Backbone:
């Protein structure tokens, strides 16, 4: 079993407070035949020094130090160095269980699977367990692409790169050089190529939930444009390749845009007027398209009403009245 080299890609950006724990969980894996690829995406803290110190101590580590280009660009750079048949990812503020790779390699080889999806748990900064409904750990083997897609879009639903993959799945897929929406962008492209996926609920991965991580950062103009870029691509991709689930991705886009707009009105996000107009335009257009064809499943009447109010001139009157009432 140890003759199968496994590549672990670790994108890093300003993670000095968490990086040691992440790297210790990787270099101390019970499975030793590893290719550890660390991509420093232009960190301005002490991450570069930490990475270089570990690289001096462990010959399995390959390092890339590059200008900041976002998570997508870090993944693209890391994939170019992969020399194994299998790979996985870990965020630089998360950590593996020490037997993770050993157990996952057994599964992917024994089952001749394209991908293994495994259990995840989350903690906050003081070590308390966090219940995230986005993680739905299951035990199942999907042996056809139809079953794989159904399992993801109807059961799991949450996109994540935290899985063990055959490297060939990443050949000729679209990866945008940005931070926002990378998991959402890559997951359906990878799933479409799979013919067998093993799902295990065994916990092998731990997530640190922190408010200022890349995927949880507040929206600004740049992040909104990145979000729109991803979902425009996905809407076209689903229309062409995953037509059965095109309404699913459209609904997700509507919910994301609505969340951005609500955050703007609550002054949680700071967007210029042109960006707000763009969000409203896309939100209204996509919501109306679902209403016209009678496919509003997943949206409550209250949500639809709020979207219509918030994307028309009436929204100005509503929010002005709220301010007056206070």
Residues:
């Amino acid at each position: 079993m140890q003759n199968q080299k496994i590549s672990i890609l670790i994108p890093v950006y300003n993670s000095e407070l968490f990086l040691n724990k992440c790297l210790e969980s990787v270099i101390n894996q019970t499975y030793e035949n590893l290719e550890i690829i660390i991509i420093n995406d232009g960190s301005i803290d002490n991450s570069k020094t930490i990475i270089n110190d570990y690289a001096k101590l462990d010959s399995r580590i390959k390092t890339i130090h590059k200008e900041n280009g976002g998570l997508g660009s870090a993944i693209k750079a890391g994939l170019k160095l992969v020399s194994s048949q299998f790979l996985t990812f870990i965020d630089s503020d998360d950590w593996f269980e020490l037997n993770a790779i050993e157990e996952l390699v057994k599964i992917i080889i024994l089952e001749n699977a394209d991908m293994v999806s495994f259990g995840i748990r989350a903690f906050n900064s003081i070590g308390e367990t966090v219940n995230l409904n986005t993680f739905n750990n299951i035990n199942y083997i999907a042996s056809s692409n139809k079953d794989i897609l159904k399992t993801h879009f109807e059961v799991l639903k949450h996109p994540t790169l935290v899985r063990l993959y055959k490297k060939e799945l990443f050949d000729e897929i679209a990866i945008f050089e940005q931070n926002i929406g990378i998991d959402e962008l890559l997951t359906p492209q990878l799933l479409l190529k799979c013919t067998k996926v093993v799902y295990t609920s065994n916990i092998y991965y731990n997530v640190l939930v922190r408010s200022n991580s890349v995927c949880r950062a507040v929206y600004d103009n740049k992040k909104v444009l990145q979000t729109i870029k991803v979902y425009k691509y996905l809407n076209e991709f689903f229309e062409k390749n995953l037509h059965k689930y095109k309404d699913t991705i459209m609904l997700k886009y509507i919910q994301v845009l609505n969340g951005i707009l609500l955050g703007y009105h609550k002054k949680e996000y700071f967007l210029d007027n042109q960006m707000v107009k763009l969000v409203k335009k896309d939100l209204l257009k996509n919501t109306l398209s679902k209403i016209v064809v009678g496919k509003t499943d997943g949206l409550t009447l209250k949500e639809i009403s709020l979207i219509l109010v918030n994307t028309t001139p009436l929204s100005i009157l509503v929010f002005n009245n709220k301010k007056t009432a206070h």
Observations:
- Residues 160 and 183 are 5 Å apart (CA to CA).
- The longest strand covers residues 197-208.
- The beta strands are 6-12, 34-41, 61-66, 86-89, 95-96, 115-123, 129-130, 140-142, 163-166, 197-208.
- Residues 314-326 have pLDDT under 50 and may be disordered.
